[in-house]
Amino acid sequence: MASNLNGKVAIVTGGGRDVGRQIALALAADGAAVALNYNRSSAEAEAVVGEIRAAGGNARAYRADVGKYEQVKDMVDGVVRDFGRIDILVNNAGLVINERFVNTTPEQWAAQIDVDLYGTIHTCHAVAPHMIKQNFGRIITLAGDSSRIGENGLAIAAAARAGGIALMKSLAKELGRANVTANAISLGLIETAHSDPEFLAANREKIVRQYPLRRIGKPEDVAPTVAFLASEGAAWITGQVLSVNGGFCMV
């Protein structure tokens, strides 16, 4: 185990699979104790906890629907009770429904906004007082390039994630005096174990042509940037949007 984040405690929402799993493993490898949030699959979350512990790290899983503030508040209270503090918040949990805007429904809007925007608001609101009290914190929110340049079929997810980016910029200004940074990471397409294999098989060549690095991203491509923003090396970086996207979007 490295000691870059030794003594720090991190919450990773949606940490049981794919990008969240890799983030949790990276933070733990750098020495942080990890509170791994999940909503549906306790088996996936506990498997990641097991991986971290097997490597000599410290981790626990916490169930909460980030779209429900009371559940988030209970989770944060539990993390503070179990670990004594919260230093790092990674807003990774997300919901994307790929559908043309004119075909979407209010129920689909609410489902995505609850997780992608309200989920980020809820976690930040519950965690911020603890970070202010200890005069230290790192808030890192994952977004997508659609939230900055738009994308067919992703109008609602893009709008919700763009709200998360705006929240990071505002919190950077509000919380900076308490030594709390707030940044976003904008992702290109990330291929995971839960990606649609038929869609990728039919469209991979066309998709890859849009990326200067000529490949789709992997969860392992994201975690190092999160770990960096959580570290002392990023102590003077706040209110920024860092791209991890293979060059797809350059803004």
Question: What does this protein structure show overall?
Answer:
GO terms for molecular function: oxidoreductase activity. Keywords: Oxidoreductase. The protein is α/β, with parallel strands linked by helices and 251 residues long. The protein has one domain (9-239): NAD(P)-binding Rossmann-like Domain (Rossmann fold, 3-Layer(aba) Sandwich). 47% of the residues lie in helices and 16% in strands. The protein is built from 8 helices and 7 strands, in the order βαβαβαβαβααβααβ. It has helices at residues 18-29, 42-54, 69-83, 106-134, 146-149, 155-175, 197-208, 219-230; strands spanning 9-12, 33-38, 59-63, 88-91, 137-144, 180-187, 241-244. It has a 7-stranded parallel beta sheet, sandwiched between helices. α1 (18-29) runs parallel beside α2 and α3 (69-83) runs parallel beside α4. The longest helix has 29 residues, at 106-134.
- Superfamily at the CATH H level? NAD(P)-binding Rossmann-like Domain
Largest sheet: 7 strands, parallel
Question: What percent of the residues sit in helical stretches (DSSP H or I)?
Answer: 40-55%
Amino-to-carboxy terminus distance? 36 Å
Enumerate how many helices there are, as a single number. Answer: 8
Shape: globular
Please state the second-level CATH architecture. Answer: 3-Layer(aba) Sandwich
Number of domains: 1
The count of strands amounts to 7
Q: What fold name stands as the CATH topology?
A: Rossmann fold
H/E element order: EHEHEHEHEHHEHHE
Secondary structure class reads: alpha/beta
CATH class: Alpha Beta
